[in-house]
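Notes taken during the Thursday session

The instructor put the following on the board and asked us to keep it in front of us for the whole hour. The protein is N-acetylmuramoyl-L-alanine amidase. We were told not to look anything up and to reason only from what is written here. First, the residues (455 in total):
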Amino acid sequence: MRKHKKISWITELQHKLDIKFGKGLYHAGFLLALFGCLSLTSCQPNSKDKIENVPSETRTTPTTERESPRTKITITNSNQKQTMNNPPNSDFPEGSCVVDAYFARKSEETKEYEKIKSSALGETVYVMVDTISLVGKEISLNIMDKDKIISEKVYEKLSFTDDKNSGDTYKEKVGNDGYAIFKITLKPSKDDKEEKKLAEWRNKIAKASDKKLKLSLKVKAEGDNITYCGKNPDGQTDGRKEDNYWLDTDAKAFIVRRKNPVIVIDPGHGDNNSKNSVFDPGAGDEKEYEKDYALIISKAIKSELDKENIKVYMTREDDINVDPKGPLNWRYESANEKKGDIFVSIHLNSGTDNSVFSVYQQGKNNEINSKDMAQEIMEKLKPLVTVPTNNIRQVKGYTRFNTLAVLNNFKGEAGILMEFGGIGSSTNQQNIKTNKDKIGKAVKDGIISYVEKNF
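Then, after some discussion, the predicted structure tokens were revealed:
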């Protein structure tokens, strides 16, 4: 039991330092050195009594950007295990503590909760409330409209949808891992006019100066003498400095867009459809074809977009052309069926000039949106490919490719077709193969920059 008390004491010391000086890593070395010193003396485990770090048995521990001050240990003795989440008999005057509150998503692959800074109306998110010495206690949560984008007053409570139809106050108990976890869908609470309200909310966000809804969290824990380590910065314009209000770790509000756009990536051309004898390799020779490099770039873009919690599809993911009507129809039809908001078609030019990089923007009603997105992407691509000035061309009236039907028949908000240099250039071929991940990230960054300004 002696080493159990010493580990608890170290945890309490960590917590005291956090409260006095603010949570950070600058005193972590001191604590590690102290723990190491203790472990070399009377804390040395023997063969019958082992201490080890273990994850929670009840929930997957959330992924955060800081080290939680909670210490989780397992004491093994005679094949019996006990998990301790919080230091017992805490003697610091602040008592129990709400350490943090933030938005997260649950990874489908790892099942872990990952901290996020933004989402969109209609999406399901989680609010994580991290605590010390509050296991089993009830946590009340309010989600507030920081800048009265939807509501009538700043910091007014909003009623989102949850499984309990809670209205504007949500309640959960703290689990054995020290977290209270709230599952929230970012749309109006369930009633007969839910869809109408959702449309109204989206319109209000679209009219905001930056097209964003900014949310803050308010947390209230059951019990007395609770310490709140809220992250609202000093100098809030409405004087709101209470410790139980939370913005994110950068003291910025959680951002909600009016919607999460659906993005469709279209690798140009495609071959090997034996059913309808439609063969469309694109430009190139017997060894190197446009269709293959378009697919390489498109897969890299999708891989990067998958990391952004945004829905993204590809018109093809293999070397195939799937439409018996011809090489074009299925591309825009697929994008429209998926209700795509953004369409990016990837191609290469013929010839050996690797400096021929151009973008064709969608015309008709989406000329401004398409041009804005093209400019954002080209700016990010400049370090990787030769991007001449004034090379964004409007499709309307351009007849060489039958007015680029893939763009003019797309019904979303922005569409472009990009030509990544000449397929006949060995330098260009090597650049794409070597830097495909960097190119994919640059295009993704450009798309996200456009999305953040327009969704």
